[in-house]
Amino acid sequence: MSLSGRPGEQAMTAPQGGLTRRQCMTGVAVASVLPLISLPRIAFAGAQLEEPLIDSVRSALSSAIHNKAPPVPEFSNTEARLAYLRWLGEMSERLKKKITDWPSRKEFLQTAWYEAKRSGLDVSLVLGLVQVESNFRKFAVSSAGARGYMQVMPFWTRVIGDSDPAKLFHMQTNLRFGCVILRHYLDRENGDLYMTLGRYNGSRGKSPYPNAVFANQRIWAFNDKDRERDRSAA
Fold first, then answer.
1. Counting Cβ atoms within 10 Å, is residue 33 exposed (0-12), middle (13-18) or buried (19+)?
2. Which of the 8 DSSP states describes residue 35?
3. CA–CA distance, 2 with 11 (Å, rounded to integer)
4. What whole-number distance in Å separates Cα of residue 13 and Cα of residue 168?
5. Model pLDDT, residue 161
6. How many whole angstroms separate alpha carbon 93 and alpha carbon 139?
7. Alpha carbon separation from 107 to 44, 71, 81, 87, 223 (Å, rounded)
8. pLDDT value at position 169?
9. Residue in 160, 208, 201 with CA at minimum distance from that of residue 178
10. Pick from 83, 58, 85: nearest CA to 184
11. CA separation for the pair 137, 1 (Å, rounded)
12. Residue 49, Cα to own-chain centre: how many angstroms?
């Protein structure tokens, strides 16, 4: 989901003098073919800025590069597992129009939940950010070159010594990078989420992007009514 007017967004303009009939017909022909070509879809994300990383952040990003399988959540008790399954069921229904097949949807939600918790982030915030950045498109690419679900800039793979931006299209790698970077910025901003989101988008101090993420976060908020009912009964 792109945000009109966000920093980094570039408008497409027609050449001076307009288009000839031949050019228009050519454009129609090209447009009819493009959907059949397997190319990353464009997103208009901002751009994170390259900066020095502390060792813990570098280590977390490096480990993501080598993880191939999606993480499997583990729970200390049955109540926690049941709460997670209720969340998974509810979020799956909400995400059905974005990711249509159940196995892919489950894998995405499971990984997003795991990586958000791992980084100490609210999973609804992460999902809201994904919706704003890529609208849940795995192969989205922004005009600034950011990639994947959380629109991670390719330089992040270089600063950890891997230098393969194609890996940012791998689901867990992208979500790990996005969550670790967001946590890194949150620490840099001393817990100020508004400024953190601006830094993530490359628009620090400006309101459109943080406001968009907060608005979409509300879509993914989860009210566990079953747990509340059990507590009331107790």
1. exposed
2. G
3. 12
4. 30
5. 62
6. 22
7. 25, 9, 16, 14, 22
8. 92
9. 201
10. 58
11. 9
12. 17
What pLDDT shows up at residue 207? 94
Record the tokens describing residue 117, joined without a space: 């918790």
Res 155: pLDDT: 87
Largest CA distance in the chain: 74
143: left (phi over 0), alpha (psi -120 to 50) or beta: alpha
> How far is CA 138 from each of CA 64, 143, 216, rounded to the nearest angstrom?
16, 16, 18
**Environment class of residue 195 by beta-carbon count within 10 Å: exposed (0-12), middle (13-18) or buried (19+)?**
middle
Q: Which residues pair with 42 in a beta bridge?
A: 141
Give dist(CA 9, CA 133) in Å, integer.
Answer: 12
Q: Give the global pTM.
A: 0.73
Residues 106 and 108: their CA atoms lie apart, in Å, by 5
Which positions of the chain have pLDDT values less than 50? 1-40, 44
CA distances, 219 to each of 12, 34, 138, 210, 223 (Å): 30, 32, 20, 15, 11
Residue 156 is predicted with a pLDDT of 85
H/E run at residue 43: strand 42-43
User: What's the confidence (pLDDT) of residue 195?
Assistant: 96
147 beta partners:
141, 152
